[in-house]
Design a protein that fits this description.
Blueprint: E1 5-10, H1 15-31, E2 36-41, E3 62-64, E4 85-91, H2 96-102, E5 106-112, H3 114-117, H4 133-143, H5 159-168, E6 175-179, H6 191-199, E7 205-208, H7 218-222, H8 230-237, H9 243-250, E8 255-259, H10 262-269, E9 274-278, H11 283-286, E10 293-297, H12 311-324
Parallel strand pairs: 1-2, 1-4, 2-3, 4-5, 6-7, 6-8, 8-9, 9-10
């Protein structure tokens, strides 16, 4: 069966969730490009209807928020979504009682990883639960008869974002992205190390991606020779900062360096090589899905603290990534 209508059930999506799930959305659409895809947040809101809506244009056809099922025992006996019917329902969560409720959506085929796919109409070759959330979601595509490794086209970003990115990083130089922030500063490699890497890039232009929580680094980043701070320049021009703009900027980079952070997932979405730094968190669970990803862990260098990762190892990894980069 080739599904023409697909429902994807999630509990809710915050910004970080939406960025981590974006590769799944792309693979899903690549497998069934003609299908109408409905994204359903049963227990809350979804950024795919809000701040990340532009990123999923052409990938998700409809987003339902606060759909109101999946939390209560009585949902097991109800018929959700007014009895709407879908060819394929993918349940991305694994709570058994919630899966029983999601299975009540009218469908031809239902796929869920709950209880090792006990309720599912299809199963992957290996029923072991992957550690990474993204791999768990891609396993659903395999169970539904798709190819979880299918190559995906670049994101179709809106013209205003790509035009703004081109004006902020005009053609000519080789740009290298540096995203030193993270929601938890314990996940940040020392900022002075990022500056040292920037100064070791030779002819390449360092591009610092600094969000609103990294204002204290703006002055130091600005003092690095040739450095560009496109998000701050955008603010000065009255261009709204957004995840879409950051991804558009990422598409113009030869390679990037980031911590385990939302910024790292945005840079990965630009489909350029990425060096990702990890210390207290586990890359097996949280590493972004980049087309060419290099992970450096503090544990490899004898510690857990991010500062254990040496500058020369990062420079070497970034230079290797730049050499592997295809044409922009």
């Amino acid at each position: 069966m080739t599904p023409q209508t697909i429902l994807v059930y999630v509990g809710l999506d915050l910004v970080g969730d939406g960025l981590m799930k974006l590769p799944f959305v792309r693979v899903l659409k690549a497998n069934w490009p003609q299908a109408k895809i409905t994204w359903c947040a049963g227990k809350g809101a979804s950024v795919y209807a809000g701040s990340l809506r532009q990123l999923v244009a052409g990938l998700i056809d409809e987003t339902l928020e606060n759909a109101g099922f999946g939390s209560r025992l009585g949902d097991i006996f109800a018929r959700p979504l007014g009895g709407r019917r879908f060819d394929l329902v993918l349940d991305t969560q694994r709570r058994f009682s919630t899966s029983l409720a999601v299975r009540r959506v009218c469908h031809r085929r239902f796929v869920s990883g709950a209880a090792s796919f006990l309720l599912s109409d299809g199963r992957p070759a290996a029923r072991t639960k992957p550690r990474a959330m993204l791999d768990q979601m891609l396993q659903l595509i395999e169970a539904a008869g798709g190819d979880p490794a299918l190559a995906t086209p670049p994101l179709a970003l809106p013209a205003d974002a790509t035009q703004a990115a081109a004006s902020l990083l005009p053609p000519g130089p080789t740009y290298v992205g540096l995203a030193p922030g993270a929601g938890n500063r314990a996940k940040c490699w020392p900022f002075e190390n990022y500056c040292a890497v920037a100064k070791a890039l030779g002819d390449a232009v360092p591009v610092f991606i600094l969000g609103p929580d990294e204002k204290d680094w703006i002055a130091a980043a600005s003092s690095v020779p040739k450095a560009r701070l496109p998000l701050q320049e955008a603010a000065a021009r009255g261009i709204p900062a957004s995840p879409t703009l950051t991804i558009a900027l990422a598409q113009r980079l030869s390679a990037s360096l980031a911590n385990d952070s939302g910024g790292g997932h945005m840079l990965a979405a630009g489909d350029r090589p990425l060096v990702s730094l990890f210390g207290p968190t586990d890359p097996a669970k949280f590493a972004p899905r980049a087309r060419h990803l290099t992970v450096l862990r503090a544990q490899t260098f004898g510690g857990i603290d991010m500062a254990a990762i040496p500058i020369d190892a990062v420079v070497a990894a970034l230079q290797s990534s730049m050499a592997s980069a295809g044409p922009r």
